[in-house]
Amino acid sequence: LNMQALLESMDTQSYGRFIRLGNGEFIELTSQLKKQLSLLHAISDGSRINSLGAQVLSDIAAEAENTTFDEGWQAHLQKLKKMKNHNPKVPSTLQASLRDYQIEGFQYLSRLSYWGIGACLADDMGLGKTIQTIALLLERAKNGPCLVIAPTSVGFNWIEELNKFAPTLNVHNLRSDNRAALIDKADQFDVVICSYGLLQHNDELLTEKQWETIVLDEAQAIKNPQTQRWKTVMKLKGKNRIALSGTPIENHLGELWSIFSFINPGLLGSIQSFQNKYATPIENSKAPEKVQALKTLVSPYILRRIKSEVLTELPPKTEQIIHIEPTEEEVAFYEALRRRAEERMTQLMEENNRIAVLAEITKLRQACCDSTLVDASLSIGNSKLNTFIETVKNIIDNGHKALVFSQYVSFLHLVKKRIEDEKISYQYLDGSTPPAQRKKSVEAFQSGEGDLFLLSLKAGGSGLNLTAADYVIHLDPWWNPAVEDQASDRAYRIGQERPVTIYRLIMQNTIEEKIIQLHQKKRDLASELLSGQGVSGKLSNQDLMGLILPTGAMTSKKSNASLHRLSTEVDK
Q: For the purposes of burial, counting CB atoms within 10 Å of the CB of 1, is it exposed (0-12), middle (13-18) or buried (19 or more)?
């Protein structure tokens, strides 16, 4: 029986351990053989196996009898054996003492770079991915120039830490003048720091250069292969490719494919074959054999450690949900808006207009923050903002500082005005904050200037060290708890000596409570993949509709008159 035909039959003619043959007969596989064939099918692309899957094939072959290989295969195995014997040492020019797990991280990156293989360092936030990578840059710098691409807010941190821990390297900020000359002259021991925004504006200069090592920090920034950013990154020429991300999968498995297409092109096949072979069966039916196969294929190229495993000296972390009871008027407004959304979403789903569906849901989420985010002409009290002020006053009175996150910049502006009225000192950062001001605000907060630091979730949720705060407040919940955890880890990281408390402000009986329920049901996709547990997928239309269905408590205290009045205003 032809092996390729047998493997293809496992997709179309498989019934448990039975496979239908072309003549109508069946063959029965042992459980062991079925497992081996499933794994072999998972790592193959038609009749070919990517060279990075050779170790998996070798492990399968080791269990088989009467298997023969040609000289090319034997030579490849010898190469793998030689690679494994590479034992890198932390460069003596690194001006820092690495923890044991950080030394292991450096050795991991060094070993894969030595082999010419890309790697994803997916350590939990705050475990020092930057310092581990700096050690690698020091080791590789003698071979040619290195390029580090990072969000704007993180770029300054790279410059500071490179100058501090790797003084033998020449650090260049691409924001300086004469970029063409800077890139052209970059050579041994040079490290160029570039933001994702500048990458797209200087794509030809950067993609024509041959780099020794390319590092993508917060690599989830290239999670969408349809964007110009991803397409530009794919054109970069680098002998070694490193992706750093505490959340390599934020929402669905396609994001993992995007990162792997950069670090190890071809390993996961085309996006279409990846969707058919892995993403769809895993996200739709949680197929355990597919999860295991994908885990087996990618785990050699992803290193992930979590704080509880390696940082026993970190102080405790407490998380608490603060449930906010809305006023009668807020209840009436939200219910009117919810009814209108339910009516519209039913029609929009029939039209398969998912963008418009999400827009309706966004209105409900904004209404939980402040009614004026939905309609500026309305004047309704704000229970969430009142609760927030009470909470932060208590935090400040007891000698603590807090980070305050919201995904809505417009809501942050309302919060900013309110804390100014209350004479509370603060720092502020969102996506429009100039890079120099971001650096200044972070340094000021860390030196004690400001009791609160207001940050947009997107601009301030990654790459910043804000250990001066020991409280974190999330004003509104994001779909994926991993993104919130990443933001919370601005305070809960190496250097934090005090216990950290994380508050989530949630309006009772609203879509916010249902999003928190999703947090409990849909665990972090990256952790599930690496641990082999069940895997969550995208939200279906049914999931989205479930988020806005009414709860009895929500409508129990509203008055029909106020509901009718506000419903009319919503229509207008």
A: exposed
Q: Are strands 119-121 and 402-406 parallel, antiparallel or unpaired?
A: unpaired
Q: How many CB atoms lie within 10 A of CB 209?
A: 17
Q: How far apart are CA 472 and CA 287, in angstroms?
A: 37
18-20 and 14-15 strand pairing: antiparallel
Tens of pLDDT, residues 240-264: 999 998 877 766 788 889 999 999 9
pLDDT digits (tens, 9 = 90+) for 361-389: 899 999 999 999 998 888 888 999 999 99
Neighbours of 25 (CB within 10 A): 8
Answer yes or no: are the C-beta atoms of 255 and 230 closer than 8 Å: no
Cα–Cα distance, 308 to 319 (Å, whole number): 15
Q: What is the DSSP string of 220-285?
A: GGG--TTSHHHHHHHH-EEEEEEEE-S-S-SS-THHHHHHHHHHSTTTT--HHHHIIIIIHHHHHH
Give the tens place of pLDDT for each residue, 562-572.
555 555 555 55
Alpha-carbon span 71 to 53, nearest angstrom: 18
215/237 Cα distance (integer angstroms) = 12
